[in-house]
Amino acid sequence: MPGFLILNGPNLNLLGTRQPEVYGRTTLADVEGMCRAHGEKIGVGVEFEQSNHEGALIDAIHGTRGRLDGLILNAGAYTHTSLALMDAISSAEIPAIELHLSNVHAREEFRHKSYIARVAVGVICGFGARGYTLAMDAMLSHLETRK
Ligand code: CA2
């Protein structure tokens, strides 16, 4: 059974508690439940993590190497700033999907730049919490067509 790490960056622990007009009312615990249920349905093992610390996110990405099959990453604001996360994905040699709840391209200019997209298989944004299960399907389909 393939295994995915679904990794969430800074401030996403606040999901569902503030700015519902931008990020919705679903909490990160709800999202985790949705991902685990979807993993059971499609036959994928799910590891789900969140950290507010760049180094901890890098460690989590390194930890996938040779152990898991896909990375789904909502790096939050680090998406737009972090060369270190980009390098971590390259060094882990794991296919990655960049994920955002909001449509970052319809928002401020500074959210249009992504370091993660350069090393990602693809990007999913703008579908709210549903984007997480869409990303799981997309990763599974990517792994199947790559075989
Ligand atoms: O849309 C996304 O998923 C983002 O990754 C969210 C980041 C933002 O910096 C990115 O540009 C797009 C912000 C995460 C903050 O999450 C909060 C959730 C609820 C309340 C407050 C912050």
Automatic annotation (TrEMBL):
<feature type="binding site">
    <location>
        <position position="87"/>
    </location>
    <ligand>
        <name>substrate</name>
    </ligand>
</feature>
<feature type="active site" description="Proton donor">
    <location>
        <position position="100"/>
    </location>
</feature>
<dbReference type="Pfam" id="PF01220">
    <property type="entry name" value="DHquinase_II"/>
</dbReference>
<dbReference type="GO" id="GO:0019631">
    <property type="term" value="P:quinate catabolic process"/>
</dbReference>
<feature type="site" description="Transition state stabilizer">
    <location>
        <position position="18"/>
    </location>
</feature>
<comment type="similarity">
    <text>Belongs to the type-II 3-dehydroquinase family.</text>
</comment>
<feature type="active site" description="Proton acceptor">
    <location>
        <position position="23"/>
    </location>
</feature>
<comment type="pathway">
    <text>Metabolic intermediate biosynthesis; chorismate biosynthesis; chorismate from D-erythrose 4-phosphate and phosphoenolpyruvate: step 3/7.</text>
</comment>
<feature type="binding site">
    <location>
        <position position="74"/>
    </location>
    <ligand>
        <name>substrate</name>
    </ligand>
</feature>
<keyword id="KW-0028">Amino-acid biosynthesis</keyword>
<dbReference type="GO" id="GO:0003855">
    <property type="term" value="F:3-dehydroquinate dehydratase activity"/>
</dbReference>
<dbReference type="GO" id="GO:0009423">
    <property type="term" value="P:chorismate biosynthetic process"/>
</dbReference>
<feature type="binding site">
    <location>
        <position position="80"/>
    </location>
    <ligand>
        <name>substrate</name>
    </ligand>
</feature>
<feature type="binding site">
    <location>
        <begin position="101"/>
        <end position="102"/>
    </location>
    <ligand>
        <name>substrate</name>
    </ligand>
</feature>
<dbReference type="InterPro" id="IPR018509">
    <property type="entry name" value="DHquinase_II_CS"/>
</dbReference>
<comment type="function">
    <text>Catalyzes a trans-dehydration via an enolate intermediate.</text>
</comment>
<keyword id="KW-0456">Lyase</keyword>
<dbReference type="GO" id="GO:0008652">
    <property type="term" value="P:amino acid biosynthetic process"/>
</dbReference>
<comment type="subunit">
    <text>Homododecamer.</text>
</comment>
<dbReference type="InterPro" id="IPR001874">
    <property type="entry name" value="DHquinase_II"/>
</dbReference>
<feature type="binding site">
    <location>
        <position position="111"/>
    </location>
    <ligand>
        <name>substrate</name>
    </ligand>
</feature>
<dbReference type="InterPro" id="IPR036441">
    <property type="entry name" value="DHquinase_II_sf"/>
</dbReference>
<protein>
    <recommendedName>
        <fullName>3-dehydroquinate dehydratase</fullName>
        <ecNumber>4.2.1.10</ecNumber>
    </recommendedName>
</protein>
<keyword id="KW-0057">Aromatic amino acid biosynthesis</keyword>
<dbReference type="GO" id="GO:0009073">
    <property type="term" value="P:aromatic amino acid family biosynthetic process"/>
</dbReference>
